[in-house]
């Protein structure tokens, strides 16, 4: 168990993880060492106790992880739908993901405009094919339809 705890601390020293990611990492990391005799088998109880220990010391916190994840992904130009999907892929519950998105102070309309400007420049496309292409790009980045429509109705273009 001590080796499992030290492995968890090494993993968490590199970046933040959700609880589900950490559980997967601890279980799969052990399976790659099965050929060595000095490795003791890891039980689900050992993993649970290590995760509980990390949670008690504030090293694992899904709520804090979700808020940091929203901030990070929004800075990279992703919209709320994509961010919520990615958080669920990382084991964050839908409720926690929604709460993290709701608690953040992010102007999704501004981010959508920035992504569109980066994609096409300051001139809004006039051709319907180019408009459709930009709409698909924004939708793939995870922006909602009202945010995409606001990009096209914005008078700055």
From TrEMBL:
It comes from the Bacteria. InterPro entries: RecX_HTH_2nd, RecX_HTH_3rd, Regulatory_RecX, WH-like_DNA-bd_sf. Its main location: cytoplasm. It is found in: Cytoplasm. GO terms for biological process: regulation of DNA repair. Residues 106-151 form the RecX third three-helical domain. Keywords: Cytoplasm. The keyword Cytoplasm applies. The keyword Transmembrane does not apply. GO terms for cellular component: cytoplasm. Residues 61-101 form the RecX second three-helical domain. Pfam families: RecX_HTH2, RecX_HTH3. Belongs to the RecX family. Modulates RecA activity. This is Regulatory protein RecX. It comes from Leminorella grimontii.
């Amino acid at each position: 168990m001590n080796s499992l705890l030290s492995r968890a601390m090494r993993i968490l020293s590199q970046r933040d993880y959700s609880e589900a990611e950490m559980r997967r990492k601890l279980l799969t990391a052990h399976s790659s060492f099965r050929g060595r005799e000095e490795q003791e088998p890891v039980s689900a109880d050992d993993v649970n106790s290590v995760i509980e220990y990390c949670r008690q010391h504030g090293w694992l916190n899904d709520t804090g992880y979700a808020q940091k994840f929203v901030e990070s992904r929004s800075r990279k130009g992703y919209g709320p739908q994509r961010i919520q999907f990615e958080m669920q892929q990382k084991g964050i519950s839908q409720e926690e993901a929604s709460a993290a998105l709701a608690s953040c102070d992010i102007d999704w309309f501004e981010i959508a405009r920035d992504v569109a400007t980066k994609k096409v420049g300051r001139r809004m496309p006039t051709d319907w094919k180019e408009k459709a292409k930009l709409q698909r790009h924004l939708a793939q980045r995870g922006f909602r339809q009202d945010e995409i429509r606001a990009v096209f109705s914005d008078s700055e273009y």
